[in-house]
Specification:
2 copies of one chain form a homodimer. Helices cover about 50% and strands about 20% of the residues of chain A. With about 220 residues, chain A is α+β, with helices and mostly antiparallel strands. Chain A has 2 domains: about 1-150, Jelly Rolls; about 155-220, Winged helix-like DNA-binding domain superfamily/Winged helix DNA-binding domain (Arc Repressor Mutant, subunit A, Orthogonal Bundle), CATH 1.10.10. In chain A, a hairpin with a 2-residue loop joins strand 9 and strand 10. In chain A, helix 4 (about 115-125) packs across helix 5, helix 6 (about 155-165) packs across helix 9 (about 215-220) and helix 7 crosses helix 8. The longest helix of chain A has 27 residues, at about 125-150. Chains A and B meet through helix 3 and helix 5 of A and helix 3 and helix 5 of B. The structure holds a DNA duplex (30 and 30 nucleotides).
DNA sequence: CGATGTATGTAACCGTGGTCACAGAGGGTA
DNA sequence: TACCCTCTGTGACCACGGTTACATACATCG
């Protein structure tokens, strides 16, 4: 099978933790895993749902969000290729249901490892175990940081930081930025207008160009 | 050593995950661990610090908080006896520094496991591994919930929820409640006054008695 | 070309919650 | 008793950000 061999290659490139596995175990793993393709905007998992396996993401990114009663949305974190969605791991390991929604931000292809396979890997492979722990640790640190920002930082600072993290030319709608921040479109538009007036960015339809990174940086870091 | 035997007893009671260890390994573990006593308000770890070991808490509770530039504080979670501070685990496993502060809320006694011992336990003991994973999973779920609440819920709702979780008679200052919520004393006082006016609670110095749980509940759950 | 849908600009309005500045009140100690 | 310290009450004030309600711009498609 050409296809399957390619898949193994891709897997090893993205997940160095799997490189130390004996070839037989790797083959067994690929055998047992379910490959899945998800279109953009497809819901990967819903809040309150129990979970089916441990996903290894090969292409694309998944966003994990909380949605408020009023329909507002906030991004908790992203899961890019090479990572796995720890919220899923959470469920696997604690047996608790999901507490957020996962949505494919791009077309996504992933391998879904059955729970039994996952548990065996964690038990037998030190690199894989380290990989999983590291994922947990990073998510926890990110989430703690997010709590601090939501609780203590003004929206303009959070928006500035978001823009800085996105590179110099950002192609997305104000609505999308608002959802990432847990706010609403009008406010993001207003703040962006201020940024433009201050010469930090220039605006066009579905496009924000960062002109003065230093200025934005200073705003984002004000009072820390 | 009487003392050491007692310690092992306490450990097994609080940490069922350790019960399956062979006696020899358990003894070695207790041998290698450093017992620590911390007074109330002692800082257990600071933000940005790298970490010394994996703590098993025998008595008391530790609170983990973020502190804003302006000195305001928000509680991320508590670590009671029988748990371990996963933020520490995080650091252990990811090698990253702490991203929050830990403070003893009561007098605390704990055993600090050296990293090597912790890693061996995780590698060899399925119950211990499950225990650690479960801690991670629970913290992540809690933190996601916290993000949602801070981002989308009004302070009166969050305060109501906090009171409900604390039982019928709550002995603490408004300042302490404010710090738990990431707010300030004046606002908590104002909201409590409203609660009292609505007949939900009765107030005295360092004391809040919940009179109408149903009323508080309804407020806390409004719009979900 | 006009029509429709999506993204953006923008103004008026106001509720929540944070800041500041005090005034009392309760409780312990000299 | 007088003193002091902590906790609480309270009012004025205001900034941030969310809501509502439109008006425009821009793009795609029939």
């Amino acid at each position: 099978m050409e296809k399957r061999a390619d898949q193994q290659q891709a897997l090893l490139l993205l997940y160095p933790a799997l490189r130390t596995l004996p070839a037989s175990q790797l083959a067994a793993l690929c055998q047992a895993a379910t490959p899945l393709q998800l279109p953009t905007s497809r819901e990967v998992f819903a809040e309150g749902q129990t979970c089916k396996g441990f996903p290894l993401i090969l292409h694309g990114t998944i966003k994990v969000v909380k949605i408020s009663a009023g329909g507002r949305e906030i991004l908790l974190y992203r899961v890019p290729a090479g990572d796995s969605c720890v919220i899923t791991s959470s469920c696997l390991l604690a047996g608790s249901p999901y507490s957020a929604r996962g949505i494919a931000e791009t077309p996504v292809s992933l391998l879904l490892l059955p729970i039994a396979v996952f548990e065996e890997l964690v038990a037998t492979s030190r690199p894989f175990r380290d990989f999983v722990f590291r994922l947990f640790a990073e998510r926890i640190a990110e989430l703690m940081q997010l709590v601090e920002e939501v609780a203590f930082h003004r929206l303009d600072q959070r928006l500035a930081k978001l823009l800085l993290a996105r590179g110099d030319a950002i192609y997305c709608t104000h609505q999308a930025l608002a959802e990432e921040l847990g706010s609403v479109r009008e406010i993001v538009s207003r703040l962006l207008k201020n940024f433009a007036a201050a010469g930090f960015v220039s605006l066009a339809r579905e496009q924000i160009v960062v002109v003065d990174r230093a200025g934005l940086r200073q705003l984002a870091d004000a009072g820390r």
